[in-house]
Amino acid sequence: MPESLVKPILKKDATDSAEFSSSRYKKVWFDSVAINYHKMILGDNPAVSDGAPVTIGWDAHEVEVVDVDCFEATRPKAKKLSSLKLAVEDRAAILLQNGYTIKQLAKTLQQVEEIQRQRAQSCEMSKWDRLNEFAESSGKIFRKMAKLTPAVASRPSKKTNPAA
Q: pLDDT tens across 101-116, in order?
């Protein structure tokens, strides 16, 4: 990064004296915002709803330093999360523009679908495991009840005692 872009981001207050710094409330101001631009790359997150996943690379290929007031005045308003999702076609176009081949996208898509299938199967198995556990615990209760039932039936009742 060029030296001209590197500068402190904290503003110093004119009242930065021992009296001010020992006060109960401290204040911080930011002078600038550093915006890092990253290359969009083929991802590996199997939580993608459809198509090949996209993520950002580790290294920033460009850094833009902007005055914080200018940034706040020009930044777009907050969007709904659903509007931030990229369509399958858009993700594929971005990846193809960044040098990936259709073969690479197809291979990643196969891997993602396999992981999604395994996760769905795992969730389904856990439902069956819970059902089996319930059946086993219910069976133990019924076996205990079956053991008690003959003992209760063989006891003489008070009404059948002729001496009473």
A: 999 999 999 999 999 9
For residues 13 and 96, give the distance between their C-alpha atoms in angstroms, rounded to a whole number.
49
The set of long-range contacts for 115-121, using a CB threshold of 8 Å and a minimum separation of 24, is 115/46, 116/46, 119/46
Identify whether the C-beta of residue 52 lies closer than 8 Å to the C-beta of residue 14: no
Integer Cα distance of 56 and 141 in angstroms: 55
**H-type helices in the chain, by residue range?**
18-21, 68-74, 88-97, 102-154
pLDDT in tens, 138-156: 777 767 777 766 555 555 5
Buried/exposed 104-136: b ≥16 CB within 10 Å, e otherwise? ebeebbeebeeeeeeeeeeeeeeeeeeeeeeee
Q: What is the chain's alpha carbon radius of gyration, rounded to the nearest angstrom?
A: 34
65: which 2 tokens? 């330093």
Residue entry with tokens 């990229």: 86
